[in-house]
Design a protein that fits this description.
9 strands; 193 residues; BirA Bifunctional Protein, domain 2; alpha+beta; 3-stranded mixed β-sheet; 4 helices; 6-stranded antiparallel β-sheet
Amino acid sequence: MQSFTQNRNSDTVDEIWLLEHEPVFTLGRNAKTEHILTSSGIPIVKIDRGGQVTYHGPGQLIVYLLIDLKRRSIGVRQLISLMEQCIIDTLAEYQIQAYAKKEAPGVYVDHAKIAALGLRIKRGCSFHGLSLNLKMDLTPFAQINPCGYKNLKIIQLADFIKDFELLQERSQVQQKLVTHFFKKMRYEEIILQ
């Protein structure tokens, strides 16, 4: 992401990367280490996104947004709101009523966090992005104050869907989320790789 952003120019096409991480705690640029409550075998990695500490692992959808914000004529706060709304719209397709909090970026259902956001803007372009909990081991979140919030409950999509099959549902969730994002960003051409 860093290399892509550093080397892109005004003609570089925006990219969206969909992936899953091995278990890792990530600390944003301003993260406070006191939000790591216990140590374990899970690696702790300092990264260059905004935000505090979070956990990434198998069963979580990661979406990295490599967007030229200047070219799209949108600001950081607008991008954050757009990301949150795309997640909210995706969850609504599963009859899940979700919402965003301006003072605590991310997406919530009944005061519990289901999706986290963390961005970095460099040269007018974004990288990093969002994580949406699908069906994963949530116990590592108990080792941290997620996003810097003590006692923040973390949930996942599988909590709301009976017989959630990760491999089948992952591609459907990805498709729904990306479709919402493409529409809101008004992309005219999409190339899948």
